[in-house]
Predict the structure of Aminotransferase class V-fold PLP-dependent enzyme.
Amino acid sequence: MNLDITTLRNQTPGLGTVNHLLASGSALMPQPVVDAITGHIELEARIGGYEAAAVQQQLLDGVYTSVARLLGAAPQEIALMENATAAWCQAFYSLPLNKGDRVLTCQAEYAANYVAYLQRAKRDGIVIEVIPNDETGALDVNALESMLEKPAALVSITWVPTNGGLVNPAAAVGEITRKHNVPYLLDACQAVGQMPVDVRELGCDYLTATGRKFLRGPRGTGFLYIRKELIEKTEPAMIDHFAAPWVAKDRYQLRPDARRFENWENAYALRAGLGAAVDYALDLGLESISDRAWGLANLLRAELLQIKGATLCDAGAQNCAIVSFSIDGLDPQDTVVKLRTKGICIGTSDPASTRLDAEDRGLPTILRAAPHYYNTEEDIGHLVDALKSLPRS
Ligand SMILES: Cc1ncc(COP(=O)(O)O)c(C=O)c1O
C-alpha cells in the first residue's frame, strides 16, 4: 500500500514545529494517539480513575488484542509494561539460571541487558558468552550453531541495536535455538513499529519492545510477549496480588496468562495511547512503513556520503531506518544541540550503550538519525544542508 504522506503528516502535530528525525529515540505521536491519552485522562478527571477504567474496559482490553496482532501472537501471551527494560527484566529474571549456565548474547547487545547478565554472573554464577559477528558485522549464525554444540541455558540477543542500522538475523537465530531446544529471548525494542514482526516466524520464546520509538506511542509504555507453552511454567521474579491473587492465607495463585508479569496499578491513559499507536501502525501496514522509512534512511546514507569527512557507522549487510555516522570536526553532542536550535532533531549514541560493539569497532560517541515514514526527502535535505553548514573544529 502506498502511504498518503500528506495526510499522515497532517495527523502529526509535531511536524508543524520540528523536523524530527529520531524515531529510534522517541518518535512523534500521531493525533489519534494523543487523543486516546488525553481522552482517558480527561475522563479520569471527570468521573474518577477507577470509574474511567471501568467505562473504558473494552478499549483497554483491546490493547492486548492489538499488540498480539502486531506480533502474530495471542492476547494471552502479552503483558503490558511501563517500558521495554521492565518487560525484558521480567522475562530474564524469571529464568532459573544457575552457576555455570551459559547465556549466549550478541556483540551489539544493549547496555541494560548486559548489566543484567553481569549481575546474574556475580549473583548466580552464570557464564556470559558473546556470539561473534560475521564479516558484515551481524551476528554470525554459524558461530551460534557451533556454540550450541555444548548445552546453553539461554540465547538472548538484540535484533536492532541502539547504535545503528544493523538488523541481526533474528529469525535464523530462532531456527537454531528451536533445533537445540534452548530458550530464546529477543530484544525487539527498536524493530517493532519499523518492520513486520511475527513471533512464530522468529521462533522466539520471549520478545520485548517499547511504545515510544518506531511505534509512535507514548513514553512510559512497553510490552512482553511470552510463548503460551511457557507461561504456566514460569514464576515471575516479583509478583503482586494482581499477578497472583491471594487465594488462601498461605497461598497465592499465579494468573494463567502473560499478565502474571504485570502489577495491579497502571497508567491506563498511556495504555490507551499505546493501543491507538499499534492500531495506527497496523492500519498503515508494517511492510509499507518499512519500505518508506528504510528508503528515507538509505537516501540519508547516500547524502551523508557526499559530505566531506562523513563516515557511516552502520554494520551489517542489511540496514534499517537507523543511520549512525560521524563527521570529522563535528562534536556529536554539540551538533545535536546546534541542530535543535534550527528545529532539527537527531541524537547521539555513546559507547556505554553498546560497549562490546563500540570497543570492538573503536567507536566514540557517534551521531544517530532515524527517519520515519512521515518524514520527507526535504526533511533529509534540510538535515544534510544543516550539517554541511556547521563550523568544524
Ligand atoms: C536495543 C534496545 N533495547 C532496549 C531499550 C530500552 O527501552 P526502554 O527505554 O523502553 O526500556 C532500548 C532503548 O533505547 C534499546 O535501544
User: Anything to note?
Assistant: The chain is about 40% helix and 15% strand. The longest helix spans residues 286-304. The radius of gyration is 21 Å. Residues 83-85, 110, 112, 158, 161-162, 187, 189-190, 210, 222 surround pyridoxal-5'-phosphate (CB under 6 Å).
